[in-house]
Amino acid sequence: MMRATAALVLTFSATCFGAHVAIAGFHQPLHVVPRNRKPIVSSRQAVRLHSSVRSVASPPAPPLNVLERFTKSVNTGAETVSNYVEVGWNKAVSRAAVIGGSTVHQLAHPWVVPTVTAMLAFGVLASYHYKLYKQETSGVSTWRSTQANTRVEWAKHVRDTENWIYATQTLRNAITANAFLATTVLSLLTVITGKIVPMIKDGVGRRTITLQFVFVSFSMLLSAYEFLQSARLMTHAGFMFPVTKNSTKVDSIMRKSQNGQWLGLRWLYLSLGFLSWLVGGGMVFLLSALLLTSFFRQIDRVPSIIDEDTVHVII
């Protein structure tokens, strides 16, 4: 009975003390029970008493008003957006660095500059000859068209004068020159092939060397073919002169022979540019293309007449 009464009194006192502490803001110090004094209540009752005091001393937080909730939401959203922006920016910078690095790596790759310079060299040569073709089709005289017209006039002169010995000697000289040029081109191609084939078999830069060698051999073979065609046409013209006195077929054949000789020389000049590409690479090929273009401008001009009987020919 006395123990129950003491527990009731202690509970009431603890409740009042908890309320006082909650209101006063923990300004009053707690009284510590001396060690030599026995507790009035048991340990189980002390735990229950402590939980009840804690519930009274820690009241729930008052609810936030509307303005505080809005401010808190805005701050939370701003922080979230800032985090997303920072993460996105870091990813963008990293990706730009990777792309920039790969671009620089590609530009620094050893095959980029030779490829670009080789394409520029091809463009220079192709644009010049396209311009030359447009000039001839529009009626502007060039070296090739002038020489072709000269051979037609020569064929008419031979038919009118019937000077067959003179015609035969002239054709023989031209045939010998074309045959010599064709033989020289094929001999050069044989020497170049003997030097390039072992390099291709070694496998060092096989694709590039093979492509360059194809252009060199193709241009030289075309040059030899055009020289031989010019010689073949002149041979036919030599047999046709005395037989077809009143026919103009010989005139057409002589014009074609001049075109063949011009193409043979032109492909021979171009093969020098391709050979410089094989030996020195793209930069040397571009330089040789510019030099060849300047050279072509000189030899493709119409011959200037010095006097009535002399023609200045640029070879």
From TrEMBL:
It comes from the Eukaryota. This is Uncharacterized protein. The chain crosses the membrane at residues 179-197, 209-228, 267-292. Keywords: Membrane, Signal, Transmembrane, Transmembrane helix. The keyword Membrane applies. Residues 1-18 form the signal peptide. Coiled coil: none annotated. The keyword Cytoplasm does not apply. Pfam families: DUF599. InterPro entries: DUF599 (IPR006747).
